[in-house]
């Protein structure tokens, strides 16, 4: 099946009506237990600052084909897999790009880039000057790192055990690793 042209793809801000479809697509692409109902509700609430929502979805009719989950600056706390002293931007002005996910049938159509652009616009309106992401270096062909670099993201530091903790403590099942996730995360900063 040939992917539809871009005029048929719609983009809208994340709402609770998208939660179930986001969980399904997220777990399909990133592995079982990547997202759940409690987690997506929390991420949705953290997407807002000053009544501005920085998270987006892409749809064709009722079919959800992609999403960008973005946590507003000041709504997240850097953890041990973050290196704020290397950002050169105050922590309270950095949003967090939780994930960008596109159905495999629609990759290469500009969906991910459009979702990122829309989130950046809203994050900027919220007061962010940059966004941080932990990029999955085990993505096929290292496409996630290449994509985020092409969008302007710069490598801050690699974190070999970022997703190991999720697989041990939260039941995350990596689509690449057979048991405990050993994938490396690249901490990347994208300045607006």
Automatic annotation (TrEMBL):
InterPro entries in alphabetical order: Acyl_CoA_acyltransferase (IPR016181), GNAT_dom (IPR000182)
Keyword terms: Transferase
Pfam families in the cross-refs: Acetyltransf_1
Positions of the N-acetyltransferase domain: 9-171
Gene Ontology MF terms in the entry: acyltransferase activity, transferring groups other than amino-acyl groups
Protein name: GCN5-related N-acetyltransferase
Source organism of this protein record: Aliiglaciecola lipolytica E3
Taxonomic lineage: Bacteria, Pseudomonadati, Pseudomonadota, Gammaproteobacteria, Alteromonadales
